[in-house]
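Q: Given only this backbone (281 positions), what sequence would you predict?
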């Protein structure tokens, strides 16, 4: 892992984790563009690179925790009170429960897709096709959302489970996690701001879980001692800072404007990357 590569990928992760354009897909593109530039094999993918991907996701997780700290504290307090009183009628308590149930559905869908997702890292042309599909999903969700006479300001159980399923599908690089979850929220009748807020809160358990499990299962201490930690730490910090700024301005953007611009971007970027990398496959 080179220092410049780490900084670039930290910036890409910070931007693309919260914008509906697929952070995992853009990390694949950036990593493989860099390898081609350096004359390296695309199929070369080490544990250090996988660990770095997790770390920059952890950086953006910290950004979510800081930005939504008041919401998170309210949810945790409400859930604790509901657990003690056995009364789950509080809105924040139900939201916390829905996030846990949605995460469960995410895991059920994502685990079988994990081997496929790992192979797609070496086939960025296919990732480009999946990004192309994401673009159409975003455009379709905007079209459907305009047909609702009124939008819901709170997620219910059915909506939460559907969004959890969408997050599971987004285990495939190119299928944007935020894009698919926000789009599913729009399909289910949520307004954009509520869908985006729920999407970001739903990302917390799954990113936290992946950040804890993978290093323990796949990486030993001797191997980790060989990593370029200065590059990893720098990329993680950059992803967190950029991610926080991205959340801040994206929440303002989505409250006023359509997701269509991101849909068109995904379609264009998907076509370009699919064609470009198909020439090197």
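A: Predicted residues:
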């Amino acid at each position: 892992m080179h220092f410049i590569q780490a900084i670039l990928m930290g910036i890409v992760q910070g931007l693309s984790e919260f914008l509906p354009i697929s952070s995992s897909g853009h990390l694949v593109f950036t990593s493989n563009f860099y390898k081609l530039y350096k004359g390296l094999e695309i199929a070369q993918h080490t544990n250090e690179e996988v660990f770095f991907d997790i770390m920059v996701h952890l950086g953006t997780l910290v950004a979510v925790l800081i930005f939504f700290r008041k919401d998170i504290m309210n949810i945790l307090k409400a859930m604790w009170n509901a657990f003690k009183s056995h009364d789950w009628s509080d809105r924040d308590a139900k939201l916390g429960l829905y996030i846990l149930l949605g995460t469960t559905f995410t895991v059920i869908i994502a685990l079988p897709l994990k081997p496929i997702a790992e192979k797609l890292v070496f086939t960025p042309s296919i990732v480009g096709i999946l990004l192309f599909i994401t673009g159409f999903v975003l455009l379709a969700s905007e079209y459907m959302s305009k047909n609702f006479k009124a939008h819901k300001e709170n997620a219910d159980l059915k909506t939460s489970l559907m969004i959890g399923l969408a997050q599971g599908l987004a285990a495939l690089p190119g299928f944007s996690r935020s894009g698919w979850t926000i789009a599913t929220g729009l399909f289910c009748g949520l307004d954009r701001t509520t869908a985006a807020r729920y999407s970001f809160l739903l990302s917390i358990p799954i990113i936290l879980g992946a950040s804890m499990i993978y290093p323990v299962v796949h990486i030993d201490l001797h191997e980790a001692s060989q990593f370029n930690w200065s590059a990893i730490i720098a990329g993680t910090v950059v992803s967190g800072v950029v991610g926080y700024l991205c959340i801040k301005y994206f929440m303002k953007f989505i409250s006023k404007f359509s997701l269509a611009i991101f849909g068109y971007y995904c379609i264009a970027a998907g076509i370009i990357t699919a064609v470009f990398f198909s020439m090197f496959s």
